[in-house]
Design goal:
With 245 residues, the protein is of the alpha/beta class. Helix content is 31%, strand content 20%. It has helices at residues 65-76, 85-99, 114-126, 146-155, 167-171, 199-220; strands spanning 30-34, 40-45, 50-53, 105-109, 131-138, 161-165, 175-177, 180-181, 184-185, 188-190, 228-232.
């Protein structure tokens, strides 16, 4: 009787990997399905159209997972099937083009991961006439030949990557932290990184060194770093001096 399973048989094969179980549900909810071991795996509040499942409808091992998702999107949520990858690309290109001045210089940090690679490709295609630099920073903590592989893969996508060898910069890197003592913040230097064991201090040094290496490289390329746009595909530590970028 649950809208989530409209048009489906009463017994379904699903992937259930959770160790947690639901032992009590709110009064307005009802249990729609149990596992073979009698654990509740689906609840709903049909009046308010709120649904919860304790299995994975998004994986192939859930035989009719696509039907469950389709029921939720189109029968329950009344979504329109108008989304396409082409329209998403157009939206991304337009957003980038409207966000960047025609005379801006862009520095994009790439790691070879999904986030930064997608970001780099979007920037490269959305802004073909802009001055763009793509930096891959070798901090000494990478897999063997990882930088070479990243450069090769991005080259095939039309992106020329500058590999920056900063291994010793990172190993000898330091930063300033401000522990709060008696209500006052007093900055103290920590490092070098190779002698630091505290994980939060390591994180601060590595994040700070990334920005320092980027700024130093920009200066070597005779770029005015304060007027460059720094592009990244995922969150990294941001030094206060570079907050405007």
């Amino acid at each position: 009787s649950c809208y989530l399973y409209s048009g489906m048989e009463s017994t379904q094969t699903v992937l259930l990997t959770h160790g947690d179980t639901c032992t009590e549900i709110p009064p307005q909810f009802k249990i729609n399905a149990f596992s073979s071991s009698k654990i509740p795996v689906s609840i709903s509040d049909d009046i308010n159209r709120i649904y919860g499942v304790q299995f994975h409808p998004e994986v192939n091992l859930t035989t009719n997972g696509k039907s469950i998702i389709r029921n939720f999107l189109f029968n329950i949520s009344k979504c329109a099937a108008s989304f396409t990858l082409e329209s998403r690309l157009t939206t991304c290109y337009e957003h980038i083009q409207h966000s960047v001045e025609p005379t801006s210089t862009l520095i994009t940090l790439v790691s070879g991961g999904i986030d930064s690679t997608v970001c780099a490709v979007l920037i490269n295609k959305a802004l073909p006439n802009h001055t763009k630099f793509f930096f891959f920073i070798d901090n000494g903590f990478l897999r063997k030949n990882e930088g070479i592989e990243v450069k090769k893969n991005l080259k095939e996508m039309g992106i020329d990557v500058h590999i920056i060898d900063a291994k010793f910069d990172f190993l000898n890197g330091t930063t300033f932290i401000a522990p709060c003592l008696d209500g006052k913040q007093i900055y103290e230097e920590v490092g070098p990184l190779r002698l630091v064991f505290n994980p939060e201090q390591k994180r601060s040094i590595i994040g700070d060194m990334f920005m320092t290496v980027v700024e130093n490289t920009a200066q070597k390329l005779q770029l005015n770093f304060d007027h460059c746009i720094l592009v990244q595909g995922s969150l990294i530590y941001k030094h206060p001096r570079h907050s405007e970028t």
